[in-house]
Amino acid sequence: ELISKGNHRHYMLKEIYEQPIVVAQTLRAYLQRMEEKVTLPIPEFDLSAIKRVTIVACGTSYYAGMVAKYWFEQFARVPVDIDVASEFRYRAPVMEDGGLMIVISQSGETADTLAALRHARSEGQTIAAVVNVPTSTMAREADLLLPTHAGPEIGVASTKAFSCQLAVLAALAANLAKAKGKLDEAEERRIVRHLAEAPASLNAALAYDESIQTMAGVIAAARDVLYLGRGTDYPLALEGALKLKEISYIHAEGYAAGEMKHGPIALIDDAVPVIVIAPSGPLFDKTVSNMQEVQARGGKVVLISDYDGIQAAGDGCIATITMPKVHPLIAPLVYAVPVQLLAYHVAVAKGTDVDQPRNLAKSVTVE
Ligand code: G6P
């Protein structure tokens, strides 16, 4: 029953829709709701001596890691290195005592990520593994197993595993901050409350599915698409572009909004839709000014923001996607929904094999 498509046409759509439930399920293992405290599956695991974090993963899991880097540095003030697993070993990474290596993997079997784990282990690092398959090799080899409770993910393009990874990583960042004495009780309570709101906000985001489907035609007609974001929305822009590439075969690039003027701006014309991810918040105005640079050059912009953001900057966009207004901590989880749905509907419009895209594998067990 768990791996039927239910009423959905594809596994991917079913998995997108499961996110409120599986994120809630995942958070239950990391939050004590009554006490308003964060916790780990091994509550006594001591993170206080961690001096540095290295995050290694591939594909969508890597983008979850990129979001987490912001959180670890912001909350715990611990420096974070991050690499794609296939590059990690080959740059002779410097790993000192007191380092925590975090591998992130839906399958727990990706060959490059597993090799990175073993390399870090041989360099004396403590290993934490954020994995969705509790019986996987990475789960077995880690010192600290941090399961995502997303349930089996069948669609090759990862969706619900990503949002569950983000939930675990946010809770881990808070746990690390607490262990390092960087999080007082009031802040801990606030973090727990914000995270606990994520499932309801994910539901609210899913309610915009129809309007996303309606505008998917614009993107389906494009040959190239650009995704822009700033801060934690930058990894989401990368994830949005990856999703489009994977299942609709449209060439897409994700870019840090402020970096656009150093290259991609040369591509702007009315044939390249630019999708801007900009929830209202401290970085909103900066991203909007990058968006206006695109519009001034005749670029067609799709703005994904909340009601306030769209009121402030939606004029002149060819389409807007409204998201619920959420705290910046959970924005990456919530804004994952429209980028997933958009890729899904574009792929359906193009008639591709959504669940089994050409040339891609669910789990890559060769280097
Ligand atoms: C493949 C899948 C992606 C996934 C990546 C990493 O490329 O198609 O969806 O993000 O592997 O997989 P992992 O199991 O390590 O998260």
From TrEMBL:
Keyword entries, A-Z: Aminotransferase, Cytoplasm, Glutamine amidotransferase, Repeat, Transferase
Source organism of the structure: Sphingomonas trueperi
Domain SIS intervals: 42-182, 215-357
Catalytic residues of the enzyme: K362
Signal peptide positions (record): none
EC number: 2.6.1.16
Keyword Acyltransferase recorded: no
Gene Ontology molecular function terms on file: carbohydrate derivative binding; glutamine-fructose-6-phosphate transaminase (isomerizing) activity
Protein name: Glutamine--fructose-6-phosphate aminotransferase [isomerizing]
GO BP terms in the entry: amino sugar biosynthetic process; carbohydrate metabolic process; fructose 6-phosphate metabolic process; protein N-linked glycosylation; UDP-N-acetylglucosamine metabolic process
Primary location group: cytoplasm
